[in-house]
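User: Teach me something about this protein's shape.
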Amino acid sequence: MDTPNTPEIAGLLTVVQRESVLLAPYAMHTRDSRGRKFPESEHPYRGIYQRDRDRIIHSSAYRRLSGKMQVFTGEMGDYHRTRLTHTQEVASIARTIGRALRLNEDLIEALALFHDIGHPPFGHAGEDVLNECLVDHGGFSHNRYGLTLAEELEIRYTQHRGLNLSHEVLDGQADRVDKQAEDRKPLLEVQLVDAADSVTYDAHDVDDAVKLGLVTLEDLSETQLIRDVISRVKRRWTDLNDDLLRKAVVKDMIDMQVGNLLQHCGNYLMDAEFDNSEAARKSDFRVGPDPELTEAKSELERFLYARVYRHPQIVEVRNVAQSQLREAFHGFMEKPLLLPRHYQRRAEEIGLHRTVGDYLAGMTDRFFRQQHERLFSE
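Assistant: First, the predicted structure itself:
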């Protein structure tokens, strides 16, 4: 089913042959992959990480990201990012950086498309409620739930549950569960996706917040990073209207962050001369911007937290969503027969608390509201 009956194509380079030419020694090469939990025969022209990418894209959980908020809800318009468009932007930026650093683009793309797949409805606000409801049952982490989706809840094959992703993609996601762990030493490709995630959300949260009128570029100029970006943009173009200025600022933010990261990391990797991905992974090197930009980004993120993520309009929506999620969680706990039949069966395997958490976490914002209105509104 997985491997088409395709004859060998004359002159077709194998994935391993292509990687030996294109990738640096410190990249994760397909030849070094630990494979999959359930072994499969090789595909004639798609490598293991390309197939991971395709399995993620075709999964139900990935499609549902289009209906999950990133920061701003659908009621605020349809300009701003959803969890899906954020994911696509991360993948694009991560691939650009990965290609320049000669890392494994296929692995990077799979990791990037997978990295937020476990987010529940209403973003981090929803995650906080589920973690609260499950505090005595292991808590809730969207990164851990992503693994649950990939290994248990997605049903694509008759032989086994899950997507049967490669160990490298699953391990990369597992590394994200506790990013502060002292012994955390992920592959460079995993580190790069984290860095690209940071580049992406700093830029698009500024873009969305200004477009929605929550803050102005003048407000954001309280931070050094935005002051510098606006200064560069205005030296280049002297007569931009507000809309074009916002767009130019966002573009420059991305270009500047990517350029800084490439210079900082590229110089280090060139001098380090790592023999393989394992040596790079175990070193003290971490993919990211230089210390000066790291501090400037931290200042911007503190501003965004205080003035955007805690904006009264956002807080009001989150409070309502969190209250409804609590009601739904306790409602399903009291009346488990309201769960779909396959979740009732799952509750017999893993317990009702985790099952209710899994069911709610998989919902889009809109479907959750429909279910809450139908089942729990008085």
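Now, about its shape. Residues 130 and 140 are 6 Å apart (CA to CA). The chain has one domain: 15-121+141-309. If you'd like, I can walk through any region in more detail.
User: That's plenty for now, thanks!
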